[in-house]
Amino acid sequence: MTSSSITGSARLDTSITPARLRVSGDWTLAHYAELKQLTENLHGQYDVNTTVDLNSLGALDTAGASLLVELLGSDRLGKSAEHPDCTISQADRALLQTVYQSMTDFCVPIKEPEVSVSVQLLTRIGRAVDTVWQDTLQVLGFIGLILETIARGLFRPKRWRLTPMIAHIEQTGLDAAPIVALLTFLVGAVVAFLGATVLASFGATIFTVDLVGFSFLREFGVLLTAILMAGRTASAFTAQIGSMKANEEIDAIRTLGLDPVELLVVPRVLAMLVALPMLTFLAMLCGIIGGGVVCAVSLGISPAMFLSVLQADIGIQHFLVGLVKAPVFAFLIATIGCLEGFKVSGSAESVGAHTTSAVVQSIFVVIVLDAVAALFFMEMGW
Length: 382
Known about the structure:
By secondary structure, the protein is mainly α. It folds into two domains: 9-107, 2-Layer Sandwich (Transcription Regulator spoIIAA), CATH 3.30.750; 149-380, no CATH class. Helix content is 73%, strand content 6%. It contains 13 helices and three strands. It has a three-stranded mixed beta sheet. Helix 2 packs across helix 3 (74-81) and helix 5 crosses helix 12. The radius of gyration is 38 Å and the shape is elongated.
């Protein structure tokens, strides 16, 4: 601090009307302690009608400008600095303007209006419904794009990608066969055991055969298989395509003049259309075998009697009802898995988030469509 430096001051002049607050001296970091005490003492001594005189203002830096903003307020200080009678330098005007603009934008918190719990709940419900609607539109649009690509390449055999499709059939079908067979076998055994436990009190344990055959041919076979494929294959499709998207391989494919849908999506969709019906048939067979084992061990129903009752009471239409749902589920699972892969941005976190979303959406769609199909076939008498 130089000897010519004058400590800043602010004095309220009440000899004139309206009263005027005269700011003078140096408002710099060197005098910060005194100026801070001065500004605290002046609070409440003037009102909105008090004018401000900055003509005697000396040296000014950022610390002093911030104190002036606290003392006078950004609006009053801005008007005073821009007043025609104000003689402060252009540099000080710019500094004051920058400081009060910064403090107005970033230092003065804006209190958000309080929103009631009911409004927040309705807002979240509305956003969720809008998200579901937008996702539905995206899935329908992607389905149309896939069908268009398949139709466009239907009469162009050279563009058929048989090798990737067979590889995906192996990954989605053959590799999943053991877990599908084991799961449905165990579920068939559990259904037979529970059915026998309940029906034994009515002396109708023989109808356990009908329960196992009816449930697995119409519902459990295709539903359990579709849920397993949704968790196993849809997530794999999303992770594979999502990793390519994150590594900009999808952009490279487009740069080469190739169609990513034809190259990546169609082989996976066709592979699922082939693999899921076969796995559904395997699931039906293993579920019935699991029920037959329980019937033979616990109920004394021989395999020959089991097959005889099954053939006599369960018609072929139940098998067809279950099998006809498999291609629809396969197409939707593959579509959702590939679409979520294309939604991935350039981060590993995004890959994980969309992989989870693909599994959740696939299982949800499968269960909803299965419920609708069950009601439809029941009303039709099939």
